[in-house]
Amino acid sequence: MKLLENSATPSARRVAIFLNELGIEVEREDVDIRGAENRSEAFLDKAPNGLIPVLQLDDGTHICESVAICRYFDASTPNDKALFGETPLEQAQVEMWQRIVELQGVVPAFQAFRNLSGFFSDRENCVKAWGEESRERLAQFLPVVDKQLGKTDWVAGDRFSIVDITLWVLCSFLGRLELEVDDSLPNLKRWHDQMSQRPSVQ
């Protein structure tokens, strides 16, 4: 099997960190997203969403969407990490916070970057005002996570999970939007310092 990816992208980083946590090595193949290789007919046959990363299995099956790829590895690899939660309650909390961080954090961050930077202006209509609104929504979301981390060690509870990986990737992207984790977000800052010590993100 192999991963079709671009290692610099947040989605590829999320999968890479997840695999590091499980101690899994997978062959990688670079996809030229700037050159729109992911929009080619050949790529779209593998990934209908036209996005990376994509996991190509030995039997020719393809799995796109980074969390789906993580779920595949979690289910197919014996491990005691419980990165999607262990008990029914933990699993529900992980799913809940994963959706919150993605929809209120990751999506606005991507929308802000794409619309403000014009990175893909050759293939999509960039609206500066929407980029600015998305950036503001992201800025308003960070205190929500800070409040949650004032109650728990990790985002979804007392156990490290995929939500922490997702939030880490999001925080790593903040600088591109002139946002940062600073002393105004003390709980998030504590968590960020803690995360930076994990071997899987280094």
Strand content of the residues, in percent? 5-15%
Order of helices and strands: EHEHEEHHHHH
Task: Count all strands and give the number.
Answer: 4
Low-confidence runs of at least 5 consecutive residues: none
List the keywords.
202 residues, alpha+beta
Quick overview of this protein structure:
This protein has about 200 residues and is an alpha+beta fold. The protein has seven helices and four strands; from the N terminus they run E-H-E-H-E-E-H-H-H-H-H.
Summarize the topology.
Blueprint: E1 2-5, H1 10-22, E2 27-30, H2 41-44, E3 54-56, E4 62-64, H3 66-76, H4 88-117, H5 128-149, H6 162-173, H7 186-195
Parallel strand pairs: 1-2
Antiparallel strand pairs: 1-3, 3-4
Helix pairs in contact: 1-3, 1-6, 4-5, 4-6, 5-7
Plain-language structure description:
With 202 residues, this protein is α+β, with helices and mostly antiparallel strands. Helices cover 50% and strands 7% of the residues. A 4-stranded mixed beta sheet has the order 2-1-3-4, covered by helices on one side. Helix 4 packs parallel to helix 6 (162-173) and helix 5 (128-149) packs across helix 7 (186-195). The mean pLDDT is 94.
